[in-house]
Each structure stands twice: as C-alpha cells, then as structure tokens.
Write a structure and sequence with these properties.
The chain is α/β, with parallel strands linked by helices. The chain has helices at residues 2-7, 24-48, 56-63, 84-94, 97-111, 133-143, 145-150, 217-232, 257-268, 323-336, 348-359, 367-373, 378-388, 392-398, 434-451, 498-513, 570-589, and strands spanning 152-156, 160-165, 175-180, 207-209, 241-246, 275-281, 284-286, 289-292, 295-298, 300-309, 401-409, 419-428, 454-458, 461-463, 472-478, 524-526, 529-531, 547-550, 567-569. The strands form five sheets. A six-stranded mixed β-sheet has the order 1-2-5-3-6-18.
Length: 592
Amino acid sequence: MASAQAEQPSEKRGRSEPTATIPSGSRARCLLLCGSVLALLGVIVCLRLPGSFLPFALQFKALGSVHEVHLCPQATVLFPARHKEVWQAMADRLSDKAFEKAAIDWLANSIRIPTEIFDDMGYIGIDERWRVFEPFHDHLRQAFPNVHKHLERTVVNTYGLIYEWRGSNISMRPLLLTAHQDVVPVEHSSLHDWTFPPFSGHFDGESIWGRGSLDDKNGLIGALIAIEELIRAGFEPTRSVVLAFGFDEEVSTGQGAPSLAPVLERMYGRHGYAMIVDEGDPFSEQFGSVFATPAVAEKGYADVRFTVNTPGGHSSLPPDHTAIGILSRLLVHLENEPVPASLNRETPLYGALQCYAAHGSHLPEGLSDAVRKSTTSDRHLRQAQNIVFRDPYWKSLASTTQAIDLIQGGHKANALPESAWAIVNHRIATDSSGQQTHDEDTARLMDLARAFNLSVQAFGVHHTLEGYPEAGSLTIADAWGGKPLEPAPVTRTDADAGPFQILSGTIRATYSSHREWNVPQSEIIVAPGILGGNTDTGAYWNLSTAIFRYNHHGPSTISGLHTVNEHILVTDFLEMIRFFTMLVLNVDESSL
C-alpha cells in the first residue's frame, strides 16, 4: 500500500518537473559526504553549547585559535561576615577624628624614642647600645593597656617581644603578625637636611615625620593599635593571634628574629601558623593600574670576598700587574659578564607579569600578547622577557645581581701591595641557590685567573696550575665567615591557596572601605610580588608555609625610607590600621 502510494504522483504538485537521477555508486558517496557534513555541524553545535562534553584538546583543535586563559583571577572582596557588627563598629571608630588624633600620637610618641642600631653592635649584655629598647618597652606598656592586660607577653633574649592573644579554639592555627623595633641610624652630618628633626615625631597636618615612621614602627604600632581597639570593641577571637617583634632586622646580628623563631615554634609547632604577615612593599600604580604586590618570596643573599695575593717589593721594580691591578681586572670581568637573567614560568615574577598583562591599562607594546601566549610558547616567553627586561628593575628581580661594594689594597705609596680584596654582594634569584652562585662566581673568573698564573682557592676547593709557575693566588670565599641565605620558599598563590585568597580579599576590601565603600572592586589588583631585600621572615620559614611581606599603604612617601625626611601620610597610617583590623577578623572567620 505504501509502495503503491509512493508511485502515484501528487495531485497538488501539478505538472511534474524533470529530476536528475544519481547512479547507485555515486549515491553512496553522496550519502557519506552528507553524513560527514552533518557530523561536523554537530561538532560545531556542541562547541557552542556551554558545558560541552568534548575533550579540551578537541575543542582547542577545532577552534583553531589560541585558548584564552584568565591569567590573573582576583579574589572576591572580603568583608567580615560573622564579625560584621564588630567591623562596622570598628570602621566607625577608625573614621572618627578623635581616633585619628590618638593614632597620630601613638606613632609619634614611638618615634620620639630612638631605637637605632649599628653594624658593629656587640652582644647583648656587653654592648650598652642595646639598652635603647628598654624605654621603648616601657612606652609600649603604657600606651597599650588593653594589649598588656589581655595578651600574654613573653620577652625573648632581653629585647625580643612576643604577644599571644589566645583564641577560644586552640585547634585552629594562629595568625602571626611580625615587625621590628629597630631603626637605621641617622647620620649626624645629615641632620640639617631634615625638614623636621628625625626623632621629633612631628605632625604637620598631613604627615608624621621621623625615623621609623615608614620602617617599621608604622607596622608595629599599627598592629598594636588594631588589637587594642578590637579588645576595646569587645571582640574575642576564636583563632589565636600572635605578634612577634624583633630588634635587629636592620643589621641582622642574629640576636633578634633568630632568637624569637624557636620560641614561636615551640608554642605552635613546625608550620603551626596559618599565615605570617611582615613588612613589605606598599601598593602602587603599575602600567596604569593600582596593584598590591604582597611578596610571596624573597631573593637570597650572599657576600663573597675576592682576595688576590702576590709578592711584595719596592715600587721602583713593579711587575706588569700588581695585586690591585689584577683584582681590578677580575672585578671588571665580573661586571662585563653578569649572570644571565631569564624569565622562568615557575617564579612569582612570571605570575606578577600575568597579572599586569591581564589588568594593566597602559602596557608596553606587545607585552600583553606575549605574556598571554607565553603560557604555552617558549618563543613568546622570550619575547615577553625581552620587553620587560628593558627596565632594569624587572631584570634585577629575575636575576642574581652583583654589586661591588667594598675594596681595599696596599698600605704605602712606594710598596707593592701584597694583598687586595673586594666584597661583592649578591641578591640570589628565587630560582637559583647559594651553591649555584658560588659555582657561577668561580667559573666566570677561572680562565682569567689562569691567564695571570694565579692558583685558585674557591670556597674551600683548591685549583692548581699545571705547567706554569704561580704568580700569586686568588681566594674566593663567603665573607665575614658566613654562608649564603638561600632564596625563601615560595608561598602558593593559586585559586586553592586559602591564605593568599584571604589576604587578597582583605587588601581589596580595605582599599574599598577606606574610599567610602563606593570604589569598584577591580580598582586595586593583587599580584604576587618578590622582595629584592630581606626581612625577619628569613628566620620564620619553619613556622608557616604561607608567608607574606606587605605594607598596606600608598607609595607617596616611600622616598624617605632609610634616608632623610622619612615620614608617612596620616591617611596611609590609618589605612594600615584598617588592614590589620580587617585581616584579624577575616582570618578569624576562615577555615585555614
């Protein structure tokens, strides 16, 4: 029946049109082609559907373009939720003019107590200059009565301070806030260059002036104010908060933070702290946008001494090259052949560049495209490196640097020098090591030393000359009897890294809250940073796997750091207090 009907022409069709006939073999090929087209259309439809089940590799290949990766996702702006009422009360308090005056007095009075330390400081109990911390401790007891009533205070090695604010849940790892009490000395010859005396704590209506206002009494006093005011507001922590204040960060005598570290470890165990926050760089404008770059790593440190010894004698019969001349040639060679800098995907610097490429509004030409494509392309990684290394600052962060800082040789104008030496300071790249730095120093000078017929003693290994008489010797060794400080372990910054996400969300929330709550969330971007210098956290690696170095204030007054006219805007200091307050509340709510 069906077949018969199919053979009847439709009455509605009217006059039938001529039709083309397809041979059976061609018909099969046509059907195959049509099926292929339909299958391809199906793939395209699937690719356009959200949640496509096709494998990523197939999607990538079918699209035929570079996969767009979000290079630097930002943490959610994080305001306290469970402690919302406490934060709102604190926010009101921190915005009050009476509180502003009290905060100014707190910092100014601490600056008026000089806590200078010097490179040649002796042992505590022998060198009387350490006693400058005694009046400072007396001042802290008087200035922060709530802290000294509710927190347990422990004195370590006479001048180190630990404050423990014990939480109700002792199973939660505490937050550790660190700072240092000491300040760099003020050169007496520079006193006339200061706008206001360096230990006056003068407030001119905008800024608080004096040594320590930026480094690091602002951080120390800011943290204490936050705790003092939280106690005043009735806040009781669930998670413990610990404050640790060293006293020799500026000269690293080994008597400050290194003496605090074992005590802190005994309190909560190895990696027993949820996170550590110490001093670091402020937020600033980079590539047209505002970035906060809490340092998640520090470069290493090494002082290397190069000593050339040659026979002495009368200057009237000099050799072609004296010890001073040979040493000079060696040092020039070091400067002409620096350790190559390279951009490594595994370093925090690369992570920072991804954030700049994703969020910077004014980037060097080609940088954004190069960084985006460098995730899978070595050629574009080198292109990004070439662009960013035009700026010596970025190049220095990526490389092991060298600076010839000290040199000495000879003792009389008409006597040949028997010895000449120099100290080269290295800041070791985060993807290098002390041993690699030793090897690079030795390798770069070996051929030139042999050209001068010098035997070489490099870090305890003797390299003799064969077949040539020795004209002298080159000794390469760690200076001052020390050894390199290795680059710090790198703190995680991925999306699953809880401490970094909480810190980032707190930075973004603090920045917004200080600007009347109406600033777009994206106005400040948080990116991983690297410190080229070193902080007390070098002693704290055993305490936590999440160590951050950051000062939450703007860069407007940073030019006074370690020099004349050190000062901080009062708005910046208030910003720091807000940050510490919100950080304590946010970490207390977290499940770290």
